[in-house]
Amino acid sequence: MGGDKIRKDKRQKREDYRAAIRKEGVSELPRKKFYRQRAHANPFSDHQLIYPPHPDQMDWSSLYPDYVVDEPQEQPTPAPETPSDLDLAPLRPKRISQEVEVADIGCGFGGLLVALGPLMPGTLVLGLEIRVQVTQFVEDRIKALRVQNQDAQLYRNVGVLRANTMKFLPNFFRKAQLAKVFICFPDPHFKARKHKQRIVSTTLNSEYAYVLRSGGVVYTITDVPDLHEWVVQHFEAHPSFERVSEEEQEADPLVNVMRTETEEGKKVERNKGQKYVALFRRLEDPAW
Amino acid sequence: MRLPYHLVKGCGGFVFAAQGCQIHSFSSGLEHVSTWRHPEDKPNEPSAEPQSSPAPEGPPTKRRKVEDGQDSASNGQPVESANGKPKSRKVAQYDCPANERPFIQGLYATTDGRHLIAITGSDKTIWVFEHDGAGNLKQLSQRAMPKRPCALTITTGNRTILSADKFGDVFALPLLPSSTPESIETLTTITTTTTTQSPPRSTTPSTQPPSRSATPSAKPFKPQADPLTVHTGRNLKALEAQKTSLARREAILREQQQQAAAANRPPFDHTLLLGHVSMLTAICVGTTFSAASSDGRRREYIITADRDEHIRVSRGMPQAHVIEGFCLGHEDFVSRLCVAPGGRAEVLIAGGGDDDLFVWDWLRGRLLGRAGVLEHVRKGVAGQEAAGKVAVTRVLACGWEEGARVAVFVVVERVPALLHYELLEDNTLQHRETIPLPGDPLDVEAIETPGATARLLVAVYPTEQDGSSLITLDKDEAGWRQGRVENLPAGGDVKIGHEELQKILYSTESLRKSSDFD
């Protein structure tokens, strides 16, 4: 079949391209056309995902190799609030010197990540994306940028992971680990029947509150006015969050980065579309 | 064939056992007292049952439910359906008539023994019965939930039912629905804010009751895309067409929306407390001293388990939106949670598709230990030497000898034995023995006996012809003395194949993930 042949050629080209770009020391930036994937993923299905059973078992060393701590094996590890020391201990991976504090949920092709990296040099930034091909693109992009900026030591603090955050956020992050969470141009899921698939909902907001420290901020941006309304309503309805005032919002330099540096943000810019921004601060939990 | 008993529950000195769509009650001496039947259960007309012809029959359950609602409403029994309109499109997906039967899926008792609660599967209904203290049930309420409840629990004080559903949400329902729903509604808007889709801090109070399916703002349809967000010319055309037809349809739509809002309005009070993006499998309430507070008052927590290996610990009402922590470490689905009795309320025993049971300090999310299940199934059960995996379906912990010993009994799906463990002082869970049974246990319950000896009641399947499917196990010096409960009430004969029945009775293993796509 002709169609099959064309598809095969395409796939072959894609594979060849990726194999070439993944060779050590390649500094060429990856090209999107070899990483295209359907824009939507079903967050309810059991994808073949890799995730740690517990955040303590997460191996960050491959994502942030420059932050790996060379420690003697027998050093008593400080016990955080979840020291599951019995059976989990032998699996404890190599430690890194600091923790991820900024997460970009649904990072897409990684525009924001790449912008945040040099802006927050002392902070580990992680992008999370559910689509395999897109995650690989960002991986290759970061790799190339690290090579290109070898001397300036840039982009060492940026990493990307394939994950379904709607299900597995607490597998990666401990309670109150994060300072900032970005949710940029999420899938709008227009149909009411699909609203449960939206990445913002009152029940899911409890998980964002769990991983955020008090005072931490959720950054949201969308070009769909109804989704913006939905996001605002659901965060404001959640007692753990309050909306950041517009004044403060506009004073935050990261808001502008989010507006202009995300891939989706650039697209909306090209189409002269509207962008709706809302920030929410994690409040302290009430006494219990 | 005769249906086996598949659920047993002690309640106020009596024992309730579910058989298909019926609940039978027994005295402590295991004499039959009375029987409750699901309204759709018609034992005398087996021909009316949807038989092994799934395709043509496939009666739309939801439509049937509405009809029933009208029937019983005329009897003065209010039927409460969260969503009145039949979703005919969805019905087509249920090609399996096994799931269409309103089997009793769960049986729960309040601690005071005055109320019994049942979940039925296909009609997603929670039934509350009053127990008169003599083994008789009086149906108090029948509430059809928006999604199928998987498990429920009752908060301390026996006031509120917490229902965990297949969609991942936990709803709170008052045990006894108030006759004046308005007052309840205002109460919930004060005490819990998680469900109210309208912002609680906003100055405009919403009169609309919280309903998760409705969008926060019910307003006439308008295209959510605009000329700037559509990416192709064809979509742009579609958008324009949409806009022209909009004006015409607006009036009709507005009217429809009003009607839909009225229909969607749940006729009974139910408050969304929390939710996972995963099917919930178990829920329980833990009470302990809060880590932060120093007033010495016990706090209530809601512990929920899902198919994606999580055990979540949330604060109790009214702060159920605060996640206190997770017990993470399971590598397969969690299907059963059990808080240890006898002053050991900080210990949680969890089982599921893993090879082991996990013992947790649930408030701190600390793993205290593990106890093998698969190894003892292989070692101690005839015919299971090559078993590759286990699915735990029951974990029952009982405090015996005045709470000095905590015995834990575990049922594994399709394994004809009961595993007996003991929770030791140092919180290790030690395997004591494997008790062989004549059939696969479906449920186990510890029942009070006049004597001091420990007694278990086990529902088993399959049983030989005309044999009783309820078995008693009495502890004596030699071990466990097995007896059969005789003189079970007649009936319970339903034309159903073994295969179809097994689909209903053995549903836990199917929680295991088997997908192999990206």
TrEMBL record, chain A:
It comes from Parathielavia hyrcaniae. Its main location: nucleus. Forms a complex with TRM82. PANTHER family: 3-DEOXY-D-MANNO-OCTULOSONIC-ACID TRANSFERASE/TRNA GUANINE-N 7 - -METHYLTRANSFERASE, TRNA (GUANINE-N(7)-)-METHYLTRANSFERASE. S-adenosyl-L-methionine binds at G106, E129, I130, N164, T165, C184, T262, E263, E264. Gene3D superfamilies: Vaccinia Virus protein VP39. GO terms for molecular function: tRNA (guanine(46)-N7)-methyltransferase activity; tRNA binding. Its EC number is 2.1.1.33. The keyword Acetylation does not apply. It is found in: Nucleus. Keywords: Methyltransferase, Nucleus, RNA-binding, S-adenosyl-L-methionine, Transferase, tRNA processing, tRNA-binding. It catalyses: guanosine(46) in tRNA + S-adenosyl-L-methionine = N(7)-methylguanosine(46) in tRNA + S-adenosyl-L-homocysteine. Pathway: tRNA modification; N(7)-methylguanine-tRNA biosynthesis. It comes from the Eukaryota. InterPro entries: SAM-dependent_MTases_sf (IPR029063), Trm8_euk (IPR025763), tRNA_(Gua-N-7)_MeTrfase_Trmb (IPR003358). Residues 70-89 are annotated as: Disordered. This is tRNA (guanine-N(7)-)-methyltransferase. GO terms for cellular component: nucleus; tRNA (m7G46) methyltransferase complex. HAMAP family: tRNA_methyltr_TrmB_euk. Belongs to the class I-like SAM-binding methyltransferase superfamily. TrmB family. Catalyzes the formation of N(7)-methylguanine at position 46 (m7G46) in tRNA.
From TrEMBL, chain B:
Residues 34-91, 190-228 are annotated as: Disordered. Pathway: tRNA modification; N(7)-methylguanine-tRNA biosynthesis. Keywords: Nucleus, Repeat, tRNA processing, WD repeat. Residues 71-80 have a biased composition (Polar residues). It is found in: Nucleus. GO terms for cellular component: cytosol; nucleus; tRNA methyltransferase complex. Its main location: nucleus. Belongs to the WD repeat TRM82 family. This is tRNA (guanine-N(7)-)-methyltransferase non-catalytic subunit. Required for the formation of N(7)-methylguanine at position 46 (m7G46) in tRNA. In the complex, it is required to stabilize and induce conformational changes of the catalytic subunit. The lineage of its organism: Eukaryota, Fungi, Dikarya, Ascomycota, Pezizomycotina. Residues 45-55, 190-218 have a biased composition (Low complexity). The keyword Aminoacyl-tRNA synthetase does not apply. The keyword 4Fe-4S does not apply. WD repeats lie at residues 327-361. GO terms for biological process: tRNA (guanine-N7)-methylation.
